[in-house]
Automatic annotation (TrEMBL):
It comes from Paenibacillus chondroitinus. This is Ribosome biogenesis GTPase A. It is found in: Cytoplasm. The gene is ylqF. Belongs to the TRAFAC class YlqF/YawG GTPase family. MTG1 subfamily. InterPro entries: G_CP_dom, GTP-bd, GTP-bd_ortho_bundle_sf, GTP-bd_ribosome_bgen, GTPase_MTG1, P-loop_NTPase. It comes from the Bacteria. Its main location: cytoplasm. SUPFAM superfamilies: P-loop containing nucleoside triphosphate hydrolases. Keywords: Cytoplasm, GTP-binding, Nucleotide-binding. Required for a late step of 50S ribosomal subunit assembly. Has GTPase activity. Residues 14-178 form the CP-type G domain.
Length: 287
């Protein structure tokens, strides 16, 4: 199934973000560490132009640490500092404020040299739906969550969140979509749960996951499901389906007559991946 891509959505999100950028010192771009480029809005570089930016690779608890380290290097080579975090538990989130202040250091210096007390740095968090923006904001704001009041250009209902006295945060205005008209991007996002599974067929997503697992994490797949005889030729769909059936059989996803219920098997595979039950898996590597 093809997911429709409406350029109108993008134009609207772009306008909403550009509106806010005037008020912003630093942008925090939140990506999914398991699929950093696929979970990125395709126009983000253009929209953010010259704004200082910190990339956060979220959900590192679910991602392959070696691959995450490769991504940090990849972004550094693009001139973007990147920090792996886990917003849900707060791992490394304490690093964010110092990193943001570093990006704003010149301005802070200038204000201090003029004898002005530097104001709180204003940061905009951008990220596609489900990447963990609200979780991160709650984590950063902690119990002291407080709105800092209206600022010009801020639409009703959108409030600045105070992080101590040194940073004010704003969530993505509107919805920033990923590039899900690209089939591979769509499959990766469906596998990680960024796209609702109703939008793609379960067996299609599971097929993608099993194929990727056999190619990159064969041992983890064998260990989780006790399947042996992984196929050599992953281009052959029938071979991949055989692995899915073997998994279904091991996990009791059987319909009357003893046949494997492929939808049920697919759901097991996808849920296990998302819950980290096959280990820490990244579904995209830097080229
Ligand atoms: P959004 O505002 O960007 O749309 O995302 P949100 O914070 O709502 O997070 C989306 C899902 O991702 C939530 O799970 C959240 O718990 C989970 N999440 C966020 N950060 C992390 C992380 O660092 N690690 C892991 N493993 N998960 C993270 P959910 O399924 O919607 O709800 P629930 O499972 O927490 O109940």
């Amino acid at each position: 199934m093809t997911i429709q891509w409406f350029p109108g959505h993008m134009t609207k999100a772009r306008r909403q973000i550009e509106d806010k950028l005037k008020l912003i010192d630093v942008v925090i771009e939140l990506l999914d560490a398991r699929v950093p480029l696929s979970s990125r809005n395709p126009m983000v570089d253009e929209i953010l132009k010259g704004k200082p930016r910190l990339v956060l690779l979220n959900k590192t608890d679910l991602a392959d640490p070696q691959v995450t380290a490769q991504w940090v290097k990849y972004f550094a080579e693009q001139g973007l500092p990147a920090l792996p975090i886990d917003a849900a538990t707060g791992t490394a989130t304490k690093e964010i404020l110092p990193r943001v202040k570093q990006l704003w250091a010149d301005k802070i210096e200038r204000q201090l040299s003029k004898g002005i007390n530097p104001r709180a740095v204003r940061a905009l968090i951008v990220g596609i739906p489900n990447v963990g923006k609200s979780t991160l904001i709650n984590q950063l704001a902690g119990k002291k969550i407080a709105a800092t009041g209206d600022k010009p250009g801020v639409t009703k209902g959108q409030q600045w969140i105070k992080v101590g006295t040194e940073m004010d945060l704003l969530d993505t205005p509107g919805i920033l979509w990923p590039k899900f008209e690209d089939q591979l991007v769509g499959q990766r996002l469906a596998a990680t749960g960024a796209i609702k599974e109703e939008l793609l067929h379960l067996d299609e997503i599971a097929l993608f996951v099993v194929r990727y697992m056999v190619e990159h994490y064969g041992a983890a797949l064998q260990e989780r499901f006790g399947v042996t005889d992984l196929p050599e030729d992953m281009e052959n769909v029938h071979e991949v389906v055989k692995v899915m059936e073997a998994i279904g059989r091991k996990r009791g996803a059987i319909v009357s007559g003893g046949k494997v219920d492929l939808d049920k098997a697919s759901l097991i595979i996808i849920r296990d991946l998302r819950a980290g039950k096959m280990g820490r898996i990244s579904l995209e590597k830097p080229q």
